[in-house]
Amino acid sequence: MRFSVLSLFPNLLSFYFEDSILKRALAQGIFSLDLIDMRPFSPHKFKRADFPLVGGGAGQILDPYMVENALESLEKGHVLFLSPVGKPYTQQDAKRLSTYEHLILVCGRYDGFDERLIETHADEVFSVGDFVLTGGELPALCVCDSVARLLKGTLGNAGSLDNESFSHHLLEAPNFANTYNLAKKPSCTQLAPTSAYSKGNHARIEGIMHDLSIQRTKYFRPPLYCLDRSLQKFCQNNKKGSSK
């Protein structure tokens, strides 16, 4: 897997890969990373990177010539634009993108992208939430992180990917640290964890965790809960239909 990230401020990205799991995975060659400064690709005087909007209004927009030149300098890959107007990014997208050999991520700035850039060069446009940032660097890091952790060898224990949030359209059940009792002062650890967790009946624990997962999803993410219920109902009806 190769990530190529285009940004006006690549220094905002590099630090994220200098520690912890992604640093180790990068060093082991599980993925490679190119952080590309778009400004040198500007064809304008003084390497100007932004221009006013057609039709006027506040703000500037990235120069399309600069972004286009930067994209055309790269080897072929799957091109992602990060923008608040894009499709909401999900874990299912991360799983799908982890099968590509080369992802090219384009970070917006100012008032974003010339729409003609997206129409001409984007394979997909993603938003990481219903809010607006000063640039696309954080969303690009979100995509890189979520995809890289799915690559074989990135996580020390691949079992960590089982039953995590969104893997089955549900949020993960509550977890508790199996730590020592050092309660010499008021502490959250004085609250007892779910008792069934510590009784060793793994089938019982799995059932309770599934129920808690459903309740948590219902409380925090009602649309996701409804999706899960609909899928469960569809699967049950499909199973009944195929057995007739």
TrEMBL record:
It is found in: Cytoplasm. Residues 1-225 form the tRNA methyltransferase TRMD/TRM10-type domain. Homodimer. Specifically methylates guanosine-37 in various tRNAs. The lineage of its organism: Bacteria, Pseudomonadati, Campylobacterota, Epsilonproteobacteria, Campylobacterales. Its EC number is 2.1.1.228. This is tRNA (guanine-N(1)-)-methyltransferase. It catalyses: guanosine(37) in tRNA + S-adenosyl-L-methionine = N(1)-methylguanosine(37) in tRNA + S-adenosyl-L-homocysteine + H(+). Keywords: Cytoplasm, Methyltransferase, S-adenosyl-L-methionine, Transferase, tRNA processing. The keyword Chaperone does not apply. Its main location: cytoplasm. Pfam families: tRNA_m1G_MT. Belongs to the RNA methyltransferase TrmD family.
